[in-house]
């Protein structure tokens, strides 16, 4: 993967370490959290798909765990939902989801 600058590479490494936590978690819980956050924002599958520049059917497959949730896509989802990655991964001490 090409990085425009060292800071971008460092940020990617930090996120990669966070995503490694998914191995210890059930992906279904993460996907349920994403759906819950999406619905709380009032976003439809189509809204998310548009913002992520993918088809609605592809986004539905992500939420239904029918296709792999990549680190890149997870980061984009957190940006679209305006939440920290920690909130999606439920790594914060005060998280209630």
Molecular structure report:
There is one protein chain. The chain has 97 residues and is mainly alpha-helical. It has a domain at 25-89: lambda repressor-like DNA-binding domains (434 Repressor (Amino-terminal Domain)). 63% of the residues lie in helices and 0% in strands. It contains 6 helices and no strands. It has helices at 6-20, 27-41, 45-52, 56-63, 71-80, 85-89. The chain is globular. It starts with 5 loop residues before the first helix and ends in an 8-residue tail after the last helix. The model is unreliable at 93-97 (pLDDT under 50).
Short overview:
This protein has about 100 residues and is mostly helical.
Q: Which structural category do the helix and sheet elements fall into?
A: mainly alpha
CATH superfamily of one domain: lambda repressor-like DNA-binding domains
Largest sheet: none
CATH architecture of one domain: Orthogonal Bundle
Number of helices: 6
Q: CATH class of one domain, anyone?
A: Mainly Alpha
Q: Could you say what the CATH topology of one domain is called?
A: 434 Repressor (Amino-terminal Domain)
Helix content: 55-70%
Give the low-confidence spans: 93-97
Order of secondary-structure elements? HHHHHH
Q: How many whole angstroms does the radius of gyration measure?
A: 13 Å
Mean pLDDT: 84
Total beta strands? 0
In quaternary terms, these chains amount to single chain
- Choose one word for the global shape: globular
| Beta-strand percent range | under 5%
Distance between the amino and carboxyl termini: 33 Å
